[in-house]
Specification:
The complex is a heterotetramer of chains A (about 575), B (about 525), C (about 325) and D (about 300).
Chain A lengths: L3 E12 L6 E12 L3 E5 L6 H9 L7 E9 L2 E2 L5 H7 L4 E4 L13 H12 L4 H14 L5 H4 L9 H12 L6 E5 L7 H17 L3 E6 L2 H7 L2 E6 L2 E7 H6 L4 H9 L8 H4 L9 H5 L9 E13 L11 E13 L3 E5 L6 H8 L7 E6 L3 E2 L6 H10 E4 L13 H11 L8 H11 L16 H13 L5 E5 L7 H18 L2 E6 L2 H7 L2 E6 L2 E7 H6 L4 H9 L7 H9 L1
Chain B lengths: L2 H18 L6 E6 L14 H7 L7 E3 L5 E3 L2 E6 L4 E6 L13 H12 L12 E8 L2 E6 L6 H5 L7 H6 L15 H4 L7 E7 L3 E6 L12 E6 L3 H9 L5 E3 L6 H6 L3 E16 L19 H10 L2 H8 L4 E3 L22 H10 L7 E7 L6 H13 L4 E7 L1 H8 L8 E6 L6 H9 L19 H11 L4 H17 L3 E14 L2 E2 L14 E2 L1
Parallel strand pairs in B: 1-10, 1-11, 14-15
Antiparallel strand pairs in B: 2-3, 4-5, 5-7, 6-7, 8-9, 9-10, 11-17, 12-16, 12-17, 13-17, 18-19
Helix pairs in contact in B: 9-11, 14-15, 15-16
Chain D lengths: L1 H13 L2 H18 L1 H4 L40 H37 L1 H15 L3 H15 L2 H6 L1 H30 L1 H9 L3 H37 L11 H9 L8 H28 L5
The chains are: A alpha/beta (about 575), B alpha+beta (about 525), C mainly alpha (about 325), D mainly alpha (about 300).
Chain lengths: ~575, ~525, ~325, ~300
């Protein structure tokens, strides 16, 4: 096969450690041809990024290629000297990093950075390089590129920055492009555009692309062939469609099965098996019978944030993060709140739970009345007991200096829900209820995996016997398989304990799985709010439709399928 | 800092400095631990300042090379009668600004010395009146016959009337006041040297005054640099950056003696160190003890016995001092050779204390300067540990002279136990009685430095008589007897007479006076 | 420029507060009346004096008066020198300035390259040595170092003068001892002592910043783009390193002034520092107060300069993005 | 896993012999100085036991030495070794005391400013900035100077150590306030704090039980560095004559006295205290550096 651009043979990468070496990748084989996009997918820790870095010769200390070959057009990169390797970078191999916000030097204009790369890689005089740079920027779809050359990275939006990054990576016209999670930090709408850009570049320049990602959707949208990885080993490979639709390996099957569908609500989430831990009675204690009606109602709610004032004497401006006429959640209902980053969904969520005060408008709780009326210490305590939160980042949401049992015992003791002596038993029971061993309380948060931490967070939320739970992107930081379990757990708890929930997420698929009703937010406003099924199947609002359109589907889009056939 | 980076530069500098050295042969570079506090000859009465200014200003009389009193601005004088002195002024003398010296300048200066803000009233304490007979003659009438009028007049510096009045310096600087003073930074005298530049605490440059009436040495320029760090002081001398160091820190004597091109010059100084004890308060201050132990003669004797002055001389003073038997050095007129010092004996001291009712001693606070006398701080510490052995617990407050003196001198006399010393500038015992030993009588300017407030009326009487006795031998006898009385009463505990020790470059001739004067006109650079 | 205007406003406030402290010290440490008249003055006379001095006015009025005078460079009269405080400062300032500048420049010249080097080759032997030395540098008390230098270079080797300021020459209207060999030879040791501490601090800071920056994505991306080492280090890393370093250097300037006090004492350098020590020794309050305000001024100005430099290096500040 | 972390600590520590040595030195010095009365062969602060007759004795190994005085005696006949131990005690007292004071003030100000932000923050930080206008050593110097000018001499002499602690402590709090504020602001943004709000915990509890433990790391590092600085500052003040009284000298005062005899062949009175001071400070710096790197693994 002559047109094989890059291949790895029995690639082995180890990170030496005094307590025994850790092998991140063992025996990995891969081929990349010109003009094709090869997807490299796996969950966190699968070693996929490591392979990208290895090909680039930028393994992070102390990692080393401990075996096998990396070939670029027959030349083995493994035994190349650093200087030789350095010459390959940019010229033969380009790379795109995950976060466009941090990939660019904040103190240099975009034009300078690009023309610098071009001048060096194609050794051209700077003037010429600048000229070329402008064209390149234009090429990656940056409007009136020439004038934006003089601007600094912070003046570009996320998507635009990623385009600049791509232009930079392409500055030396490499043969191979490694894209490491190129769209993970971007909104779905933008994500689509960037992927399309990569795709088109790949086609035009018959470029080999390695697309490293954790998102099956992205693969399905973009890749021609896919390599599925787990624990540094190759699990399965083949043409994308085949791997997705007839996976041969168990792991792949589970992986794909775990991906929540955006097109229908799966039954396991709609009515999950109702478990009852012995703690449920305790959790349900002191709940007045479920009346009907709204649990919480927000009316004419707005939130303004002050913005930096531009002129010295000028007034500090403010921008309206949230502005909604009203929103209410029925008892026992799960309301999904979707929107792109900066749409104000988290702010709204936090206002609904009283974590941040609204600029105007009011929030009324069925059991507690207007939040503004909740003044006395006792009343506030009661409210705080009923309303709890589960956060996105399982790492920052637990106090790393506190042992888990303290984290769980503190709220129980604070609200006087149990005597000192019975608290430990309750803590154990709670942990078991959320699917952790009862004795995990003696450990510290950093000794748990992301999923386990998220379970601890849920346990903490439950520990005060809440009625209303705000889930703020609870699964966004988790791997797909774990995400599914987490959603299942939440749904099960909701059913068993009859919780009311506000579920905030940017992921339409996830929201669909859990929500009875869904509200779509855009720039602080709710553009559409209807029963989930109705909204997904027949979106009324233009924006909603666009979101649903661009959302990547593991099954792949009809139109992209066509597009690929066309090339 | 990388060494090879500076080395060449350093070398170059070494050469360059070496080259310029001989060019300034006639310049005398003096480093002293203190600086003259002011250029006004009537404000700060502090010996270094006085003797520094004595090179710029002149008095009617002054000590010559051999330490004899001789005419300076006074050509000659005669005693019309016991009380009346007539001075014939030297003519052809001009001030540094060129104006001619005459009688009115003398009268003006005497007025100025007696004015409210002056600290030199004492020099004319014995004077009834003074007047100008003519342009070149001044007559001084004393209240009573004064055998040592000339000695008194040594410290009276003469300023130029016109210059002073023109520059608003008609009055001496008021040390209390926060006010500008021209005379603090400018001088216009008749002396052999005139002030070229003055940066207090930094550098003062004098130049030989070519219009000088007398003959001066070959020194054309004098550069004064105060250096307060002893180590720096010596290193400056050894590295040839200065030609004269005064005083030379005792601990560095051996080094200078062995040093190439430098020498140690030393002679006895008329400064007697002593410990003072509060004898005028009923309750001593800054001490828990009831009443005032020092009122008891036995306690004072005990302290004299307990303080091993010889050890202090040998150890603290490196032998650069002689044991003091009384409050004078032997060269001073009125020294009593028969007196001896109470010998060092812890037992005697203890038993005396026991008799006095302090078998376990007592606690007292001692005030001490750290930068005024040679090793003053260390002397005090030695005293503290010596007294500790007889059970007297001493809390030492050692502080710079700037804080020390305001605390202990008039009007507060804010101390009950202290280290001090005195130099009779007149080289006559009477000066000591008038300032240090005589019963305190501030109105008549007597006993202003009698900080311990001791009082022996018989001694006072003898001193008073001596003050008006013209017969030298009889007078000396009186002074000696008076001194005997004071020593017997242990008014103060005498420690030692310190040596005047300077370090100088080989090629410098200096003249040392027991009073620490440094008359630069007698110095020479070879 | 909004950013700088705001800073200027802050600076003014800072100075006013500093002046307040100076004023309080000036006014209440030691009764100014007592320092003006002898003990024997009668109570009535003192009252009269208080009145005439306006010491009975409301405190704010007095403060205002003090500030106004200070702005006109009138800090009262030193009672140990019987001269205008401002005059005295003016006399001593040049000496200190030249010392501070010489050592400041020295430390920067040495610290920046060394810092970058140790940042890039942090495991290297030379780097390790430099770091070890820098620890000593920041640790050794400057007075101790000064004494040792004198011992070695003045007494043993007799290469350099041990005290004082050398001959002064005028170049381009600037009077400084740095323009003469003699002057330089005098300034060298004090400057070295003063420089060493700063050197250590700045060097370590630059190194730390360098390490931080080299770890950032945009540097990794720069490598991935195939930029040569030199460009990555000096064009991309260094500039980003400088932002925090500049602040620190700004701060160091005022600490240079502070440490010059010690150096000046050890080397008999006739500058502000020895003046301050004299003032303390004499409890010369007007002088103390003035010095206080002076250092405040130095700091405030250096900070303004720093801010200005910021605006130059960091576009994000220019655009109010930070 | 927890064991891993702890063993990591020892592993890293033992991998840096310099640090181990420094730590040991610090330990020894602290013990030696705190129990100076026990270890010191003489009691240099008790004049009764000092004899002027055995002053200026060279160290034991030099000729003309007296075996009673291992490192010789000073001009007062004080045993240099004992004087160093007692002086070192003062230096450590001042160093640690002053830093403790700074930490307390800095923590309070920093936490309040960082947690509540807004106006409180603005005001507090402006104050801090003003104080920052003055290098700590200068503040301590002026503070001491002004007190010396206004207090009666004996009071000042008696209270020398507390005054010094006060001066240096008050001079040093700003840096602590700054880093505490910075990290408090970071912590405040963390979800676990929001979770505490959600639970309804009172602010004080949140600050003390949750935020404070999370910001101690940097404070610890700075504290160690500051102890070194404080010791040097104390020594410097004493050297400038604003510090401890002649009869009870700290290390700095010993060096100041000794420096007068630097060229007089009596080198031991300045060299030994000098070395001790230097070693003490270097040791603190080295340990602090190591702890910083340890707490910030990315630097490894």
């Amino acid at each position: 096969m002559t047109d094989i651009l890059c291949k790895t043979q029995d690639l082995k990468i180890t990170f030496p450690h005094r307590l025994g070496d850790f092998t991140a990748v063992h025996g990995f084989d891969m081929e990349v041809r010109r003009g094709e996009i090869v997807g490299l997918i796996g969950e966190s820790g699968a070693g996929k990024s490591t392979i990208g870095n290895a090909i680039m010769g930028l393994l992070s200390h102390p990692g080393v290629v401990s075996g096998g070959r990396i070939e670029l057009e027959g030349e083995n990169l493994v035994d190349l000297s650093d200087t030789a390797m350095a010459r390959l970078r940019g010229g033969r191999i380009g790379m795109i990093f995950q976060d466009p916000m941090t990939s660019l030097n904040p103190l240099m204009t975009v034009g300078d950075q690009l023309s610098e790369s071009i001048a060096i890689l194609q050794d051209l005089p700077l003037a010429q390089a600048r000229q070329m740079a402008a064209d390149r920027l234009d090429g990656v779809g940056i409007p009136d590129a020439a004038s934006r050359m003089g601007q600094y990275p912070h003046e570009f939006s996320g998507g635009m920055r990623q385009r600049v990054v791509i232009a930079l990576a392409m500055a030396g016209d490499p043969d191979l492009l490694i894209a490491d999670e190129p769209t993970t930090a971007l909104d779905v709408s933008v994500q689509k555009q960037v992927l399309d850009l990569i795709r088109s570049i790949c086609v035009e320049r018959s470029l080999g692309v390695i697309l490293v990602t954790h998102d099956m959707g992205v693969i399905a949208e973009t890749a021609d062939r896919v390599y599925v990885m787990r624990y540094g080993k190759l699990v399965e490979t083949g043409p994308t469609a085949q791997v997705i639709h007839q996976p041969t390996q168990q792991y792949t099957q589970d992986l794909i099965a775990a991906i929540p569908s955006i097109d229908h609500r799966e039954d396991r989430f709609r009515n999950p098996a109702k478990k009852t831990g012995e703690i449920d009675q305790w959790l349900l204690q002191g709940h007045k019978g479920e009346g009907s009606g709204d649990y919480v109602t927000a009316s004419a709610l707005t939130k303004d944030f002050a913005t930096k004032k531009k002129s010295f004497w000028g007034k500090a401006g403010s921008f309206r993060a949230v502005d909604i006429p009203g929103l209410s959640i029925k008892r026992g209902e799960v309301l999904g709140l979707v929107g792109e980053s900066g749409s104000g969904k988290s702010t709204l969520g936090r206002m609904m739970t009283g974590l941040i005060p609204p600029s105007s408008g009011s929030v009324r709780y069925g059991d507690h009345g207007l939040m503004t009326d909740v003044r006395t210490r006792a009343a506030r305590k009661a409210l705080r007991r009923d309303v709890q939160v589960v956060f996105q980042d399982p790492y920052s949401s637990l106090n790393s200096r506190m042992r888990v049992d303290h984290i769980l015992a503190e709220p129980i003791r604070f609200h006087g829900l149990a005597e000192r002596e019975e608290t430990p038993r309750l803590v154990g029971a709670l942990l078991e209820r959320v699917g952790l061993p009862a004795d995990s309380g003696r450990k510290f948060p950093h000794q748990f995996s992301g999923g386990q931490r998220q379970r601890i967070c849920i346990a903490r939320a439950l520990s005060v016997r809440p009625r209303f739970l705000l889930c703020d992107e609870p699964t966004s930081a988790l791997d797909v398989s774990i995400q599914a379990d987490m959603l299942a757990l939440l749904m099960e708890l909701r059913r068993s304990l009859g919780l009311t929930m506000l579920f905030v997420s940017h992921d339409l698929a996830v929201v669909r799985q859990v929500s009875d009703r869904v509200a779509v937010m855009k720039q602080g406003q709710i553009v559409e709010c209807r029963a989930a099924e109705a909204l997904y199947d027949a979106p009324e609002n233009e924006y909603t439709r666009m979101l649903l359109e661009t959302a990547p589907r593991a099954t792949g889009h009809e139109n992209t399928q066509n597009m690929r056939r066309a090339t | 800092m990388s060494k090879n980076y500076i080395a060449p530069l350093v070398a170059a500098l070494a050469v360059s400095t070496a080259l310029v050295a001989p060019a300034q042969a006639e310049t005398l570079r003096i480093a002293s631990q203190g600086d003259a506090t002011s250029l006004d000859p009537h404000s700060h009465n502090e010996s270094f300042t006085n003797y520094f200014l004595a090179n710029v200003y002149e008095g009617l009389v002054a000590r010559d090379k051999d330490f004899e009193i001789a005419g300076q601005l006074a050509q000659s004088w005669e005693q019309v009668d016991a009380k009346t002195w007539r001075f014939t002024l030297r003519d052809g003398v001009s001030f540094h600004d060129g104006s001619v010296f005459a009688a009115d300048d003398v009268i003006f200066s005497m007025d100025r010395a007696l004015s409210e803000t002056s600290n030199f009233k004492h020099v004319l304490a014995s004077v009834e009146s003074y007047s100008a007979i003519d342009d070149m003659t001044v007559e001084v009438v004393t209240k009573a016959p004064n055998p040592i009028l000339l000695n008194d007049l040594l410290d009276l510096m003469i300023l130029d009337k016109q210059w002073s009045e023109a520059n608003g310096a008609a009055m001496p600087i008021n040390l209390q006041a926060e006010e500008k003073a021209y005379s603090a930074t400018n001088a216009n005298g008749t002396g052999p040297f005139q002030v070229v530049s003055r940066a207090q605490g930094e550098k003062t440059t004098l130049a030989a005054f070519d219009g000088y009436w007398g003959d001066a040495g070959n020194v054309t320029e004098v550069v004064f640099t105060p250096i307060n760090n002893a180590a720096t002081l010596v290193s400056a001398l050894l590295s040839g950056e200065v030609d004269l160091v005064m005083p030379l820190p005792l601990q560095d004597i051996p080094r200078v003696e062995n040093g190439a091109g430098v020498k140690v010059v030393s002679s006895a100084e008329a400064r007697t160190m002593y410990i003072g004890m509060d004898q005028w308060r009923d309750q001593i201050i800054e001490s828990p003890v009831e009443g005032n132990p020092f009122l008891d003669l036995r306690v004072r004797q005990a302290i004299a016995h307990a303080v091993d002055a010889q050890a202090i001389i040998d150890r603290v003073m490196q032998g650069q001092a002689t044991l003091a038997t009384q409050y004078l050095m032997d060269k001073v007129n009125g020294y009593n050779p028969d007196l001896t010092r109470l010998e060092y004996s812890v037992d005697t001291a203890k038993s005396l204390l026991a008799e006095a009712g302090y078998p376990d001693g007592f606690e007292v606070t001692m005030d001490c300067s750290t930068d005024r006398y040679v090793n003053d701080g260390q002397i005090c510490q030695a005293t503290v540990s010596l007294l500790a052995r007889v059970g007297i617990k001493v809390n030492l407050i050692a502080q710079p002279k700037a804080q020390f003196f305001p605390k202990v001198v008039a009007p507060d006399f804010g101390t009950s136990f202290f280290l001090l010393s005195w130099t009779p500038s007149t080289m006559d015992a009477l000066n000591v009685f008038q300032n240090v030993l005589g019963t305190r009588d501030l109105e008549n300017g007597k006993g202003a430095w009698n900080i311990s407030g001791c009082s022996v009326p018989e001694a006072d009487a003898l001193a008073a008589e001596a003050a008006v006795t013209m017969d030298a031998t009889a007078r000396e006898k009186m002074l000696q007897d008076a001194m005997a009385l004071m020593v017997e009463d242990v008014c103060l505990v005498p420690l030692h007479v310190q040596q005047l020790v300077w370090g100088a470059a080989e090629n410098i001739d200096v003249v040392q006076h027991p009073t620490f004067e440094f008359p630069l006109e007698y110095f020479n650079v070879n | 420029m909004y950013f700088l205007l705001a800073r200027l406003l802050q600076a003014t406030i800072v100075m006013l507060c500093v002046a307040l402290v100076g004023f309080l010290v000036f006014q209440f440490v030691g009764d100014p009346v007592l320092s003006l008249v002898g003990q024997e003055t009668s109570v009535e006379d003192r009252e009269a004096l208080r009145e005439s001095l306006g010491l009975n006015d409301p405190i704010l009025v007095q403060y205002a008066r003090y500030v106004v005078n200070a702005v006109q460079g009138d800090f009262g009269i030193s009672y140990s020198f019987n001269r205008d405080v401002s005059e005295m400062i003016a006399d001593r300032l040049p000496a200190t300035i030249e010392l501070v500048m010489l050592s400041g420049v020295l430390s920067l010249l040495l610290a920046i390259p060394a810092g970058i080097y140790t940042g890039i080759r942090r495991k290297g032997g030379i780097a390790q040595t430099i770091m070890a030395l820098s620890v000593i540098g920041v640790s050794i008390p400057s007075f101790l170092l000064g004494i040792l230098l004198i011992l070695v270079f003045s007494v043993w080797l007799n290469w350099l003068p041990s005290f004082g300021r050398g001959d002064v020459a005028v170049v381009l209207g600037f009077r400084s001892s740095l323009f003469t060999w003699d002057g330089l030879s005098h300034a060298l040791m004090p400057a070295a002592v003063l420089c060493l501490f700063q050197l250590g601090v700045i060097l370590r800071l630059i190194r730390a910043e360098m390490l931080e920056v080299l770890r950032t994505d945009y540097i990794r991306f720069a490598w991935a783009r195939g930029l040569p080492g030199g460009r990555v280090y000096f064009r991309h890393a260094l500039k980003n390193t400088l932002v925090p370093v500049v602040t620190a250097i700004g701060l160091q300037l005022s600490s240079l002034f502070a440490f010059s006090i010690i150096t000046e004492r050890v080397f008999q350098w006739p500058g502000m520092g020895s003046l301050l020590l004299h003032a303390i020794g004499q409890s010369d309050i007007p002088l103390l107060a003035a010095y206080l305000i002076f250092v405040g001024l130095v700091f405030t100005i250096s900070n303004l300069v720093v801010d200005a430099i910021y605006v130059l290096i960091d576009p994000r500040i220019r655009h109010g993005a930070l | 896993m927890l064991e891993r972390i702890r063993s990591d600590f020892w592993y890293e520590l033992l991998n840096s012999p310099v640090t181990v040595v420094s730590a040991v030195i610090i330990a020894l010095m602290i013990i030696g100085c705190t129990f100076a009365p026990v270890f010191a062969p003489h009691t240099p602060f008790d004049p009764a036991t000092i004899s002027i007759m055995d002053n200026n004795m060279p160290p034991a190994w030099a000729d003309g030495a007296d075996p009673r005085f291992l490192l010789g005696t000073d001009l007062q006949g004080r045993d240099v070794l004992s004087a160093m131990l007692y002086g070192g005690r003062i230096s450590l007292q001042v160093g640690i005391g002053a830093v403790a004071l700074s930490v307390v003030i800095g923590m309070i100000v920093g936490l309040v400013a960082g947690y509540f932000g807004g106006m409180t923050d603005a005001v507090l930080m402006r104050v801090a900035e003003i104080q920052f206008a003055f290098p700590p050593i200068l503040i301590a110097l002026l503070f001491n100077g002004i007190l010396k000018a206004s207090l009666p001499a004996d009071v000042f002499a008696q209270a020398a150590v507390p005054i010094m602690i006060l001066a240096i402590g008050l001079a040093g709090w700003v840096q602590f306030a700054r880093i505490v504020r910075a990290s408090a602001m970071v912590q405040r943004g963390q979800d676990y704090v929001t979770a505490c709000h959600a639970i309804g915990l009172p602010t004080v509890t949140i600050i003390l039980r949750h935020i404070t433990p999370n910001i101690l790391g940097p404070v610890l590092v700075l504290a160690m560095l500051q102890i070194a600085v404080a010791i040097v500052t104390e020594a410097t003040l004493s050297f400038l004559g604003l510090g401890t009284p002649l009869t009870e000298p700290s290390l700095g005062a010993l060096i100041q006295i000794g420096s007068q005899y630097l060229f007089s062949g009596i080198w031991w009175v300045v060299i030994f205290p000098g070395i001790m001071l230097l070693v003490m400070v270097v040791a603190f710096n080295l340990v602090a550096d190591w702890v910083r790197d340890y707490l910030n693994p990315r630097l490894r």
